[in-house]
């Protein structure tokens, strides 16, 4: 990849960050175009997976040139920073060889926009979508959500979660089933998905929901963040004074994997971390407040493996009685109160010690 002398140091600085360590801009191959490749390029872009990825990229403003072959790294114009004053081709873009996955990062330090997308979610960007914004507006109107009714407000009140917190986090209910809670997932203020929960603890996600952390906009500028295991625990920590908190969108693994960490494109169970990389990279301290059970402990370990144990702390939930410990943030809030929950989080220990 061609890098100007004025920007090479910033390239190395960004590329060395933990979640992007697999990309070395100095070794990115440069694709040389010549007439004999034209038919190969055209045929490659006709594969269904690459077409899906290309369509997704267009919605994000990434303009793919005809020479962008899978298996190669390419220097493109970043739609976020436009290459700065020098109009640099600062966006490194890559589609893996089989077309399953695309990843990109702007190597201008002032920008750093990064992301990844899989070709398996075809419904999300299929069809004639003019742009991502109009897609989001249509999706929001079609979800059939309404403000929480008295029954669900009472349900949250029993868990010491206030209407103020519910409103700030845009917690809704389904208009055609008023016993279903809708946790809206937003990024940059736009609705990107929804997770549903019944009072009886049945969960499901809306079709096309982006795989991101719940409450991601609350950690945009945070140097210290808290990660919990469920949306209600995120709301509970807000009652204790912590807005710099996010929740994983899916359940915890049954146990810690004994295998080495997979490459980004195969780490599908934790794709939500990679999709939020630009937020997580800003954090110098990450407090893991997962559930106090074997799956919750496994989740904490898997998160620490990916985020770096050296910047992780672990909440130690206290004893509930002679034989049992509190399970999670909401249980502590209910039985001990907001001040006690705040102190427990403030007393988190370095992950290596807690582990």
From TrEMBL:
Gene3D superfamilies: 3.40.1360.10. Transmembrane segments: none annotated. It comes from Psophocarpus tetragonolobus (Winged bean). Residues 223-312 form the Toprim domain. One of its GO terms (molecular function) is 5'-3' DNA helicase activity. CDD domains: TOPRIM. InterPro entries: TOPRIM_dom, Twinkle-like. It comes from the Eukaryota. This is Toprim domain-containing protein. PANTHER family: T7-LIKE MITOCHONDRIAL DNA HELICASE, TOPRIM DOMAIN-CONTAINING PROTEIN. The lineage of its organism: Eukaryota, Viridiplantae, Streptophyta, Embryophyta, Tracheophyta.
């Amino acid at each position: 990849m061609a890098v100007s002398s004025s920007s090479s140091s910033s390239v190395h600085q960004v590329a060395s960050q933990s979640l992007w360590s697999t990309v070395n801009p100095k070794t990115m191959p440069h694709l040389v175009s010549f007439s004999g490749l034209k038919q190969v390029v055209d045929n490659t872009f006709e594969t269904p997976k690459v077409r899906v990825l290309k369509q997704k990229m267009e919605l994000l403003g990434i303009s793919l040139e005809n020479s962008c072959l899978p298996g190669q790294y390419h220097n493109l114009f970043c739609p976020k920073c436009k290459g700065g004053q020098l109009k640099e081709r600062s966006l490194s873009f890559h589609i893996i060889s089989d077309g399953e996955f695309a990843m990109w990062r702007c190597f201008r330090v002032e920008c750093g926009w990064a992301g990844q997308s899989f070709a398996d979610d075809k419904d999300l960007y299929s069809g004639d979508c003019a742009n991502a914004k109009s897609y989001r507006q249509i999706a929001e109107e079609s979800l059939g959500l309404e403000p929480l009714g008295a029954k669900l407000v009472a349900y949250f009140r029993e868990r010491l979660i206030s209407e103020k917190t519910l409103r700030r986090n845009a917690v809704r209910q389904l208009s055609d089933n008023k016993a279903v809670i809708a946790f809206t997932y937003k990024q940059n203020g736009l609705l990107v998905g929804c997770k549903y929960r019944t009072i009886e603890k049945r969960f499901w996600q809306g079709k096309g929901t982006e795989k991101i952390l719940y409450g991601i906009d609350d950690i945009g500028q945070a140097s210290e963040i808290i990660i919990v295991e469920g949306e209600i625990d995120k709301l509970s920590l807000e009652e204790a004074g912590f807005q710099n908190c996010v929740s994983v969108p899916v359940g915890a693994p049954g146990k810690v994997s004994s295998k080495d960490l997979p490459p980004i494109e195969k780490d599908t169970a934790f794709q939500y971390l990679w999709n939020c990389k630009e937020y997580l990279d800003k954090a110098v301290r990450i407090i893991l407040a997962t559930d106090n059970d074997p799956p919750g402990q496994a989740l904490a370990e898997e998160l620490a493996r990916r985020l770096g144990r050296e910047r992780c702390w672990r909440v130690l939930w206290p004893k509930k009685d002679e034989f049992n410990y509190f399970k999670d943030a909401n249980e502590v809030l209910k039985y001990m109160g907001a001040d006690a929950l705040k102190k427990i989080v403030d007393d988190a220990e370095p992950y290596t010690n807690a582990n």
